[in-house]
Amino acid sequence: ECKLGLTTSDGQPLALRAAWKNEQHEHHKVAVAVIAQLFTYMQLWHLQYCFITSWFVTWLVHCPAHERHKLYVSKPLMSGTSSGRQPEATAMGSVAWLQSQALRTMHVQVAPYLPPPAASDAGGADHGPQGEGSEQPDAGAEPGSDSSYAPSSPRKQGSSSRGHSAGSAQPADAPYSHAASLQLVAPGAVVLLDRICTGDAGTVVHAVYQGAPAVVKLFGPDSPAQAAYRRELQAYQRFQGQQGHLLPVMLGAGYLAPGVRFIALSVVDGQPLASLAPDIPKAVCAAALCALTSLHGIDGFVHGDVHLGNIMVVRKDSADDTAATCVLLDFGRSRFNATPDEQQQEAKTLQRLLCA
């Protein structure tokens, strides 16, 4: 269920595919966030059929078993409408049809989606940021009728569909590669439990990593998510000596499923500063500023997304705030080689938040 507004200013459903394709579209970021998150889930759980629902409108989504680099997105389906003598498909009827399709194809083995490796993926490992990637699925066609929702006949992976019109049932090919050198995490090494939150770049879940409790961040195949993954990975690599006291311990990182990267972190036994506001103890405020400025002292670091939800306080003694320490989270917007002025501005921003 999408809680983002998927309607235009005049109340009409968004053209998700058009918004996804056009970076200048006013709803482009929303479309990318919704489609990329759904694509991530479909790859992780080997799903072929899903749907997006937001208030009174629903979209059906299909990721073919043997063309995992594509998504087919239906036209928006209203909660219940008809047009003259020609009845239109309702959301309930369409979802029922979707369920029947899923049951009919549940025996089909789903092939993996393997994005083309970036320069940092050589040899099967991602060793840090190498610039913005372009790994994102094709949003698929937005056909004009239910009958053209899915392709009538499967095509071989990698075959070209260029030349089809925008209204065609066949989407243009997305970048695709078998990328045999990419190494996926061993089956069972990561067990996903319940969702904690979903942000701009991905989803955070409680998990078990190699038998130990962990927090796992999932990054989808879209370019913003992949850039956030590389920035976060770089931060943990640069801050190896600070892990465990100024930031969580990174337990592992890589491909959880083809097209989906992950970072597994240790569980921080604390609470976010946002839960203490507006009466944050002075000693805790000092610990938060100390944690941030300590990281500022390494390679010109700036966090890029400082707010009270991204800092956790760890109390060794619940009755003594002077013994509290703070841990920073979420480095998806961080960067290095910032100027001293930029670092000072970030410290002032945190100070204002702590005093608010």
TrEMBL record:
Ranges where the Protein kinase domain occurs: 190-356
Region of interest called Disordered, as start-end residue ranges on this chain: 114-174
Bias kind Polar residues: ranges: 145-157
Xref: InterPro entries: Kinase-like_dom_sf, Meiotic_Drive_Suppr_Kinase, Prot_kinase_dom
Biased composition (Low complexity): 158-169
Domain of life of the source: Eukaryota
GO molecular function terms attached to this record: ATP binding; protein kinase activity
Protein name: Protein kinase domain-containing protein
Species of provenance: Chlamydomonas leiostraca
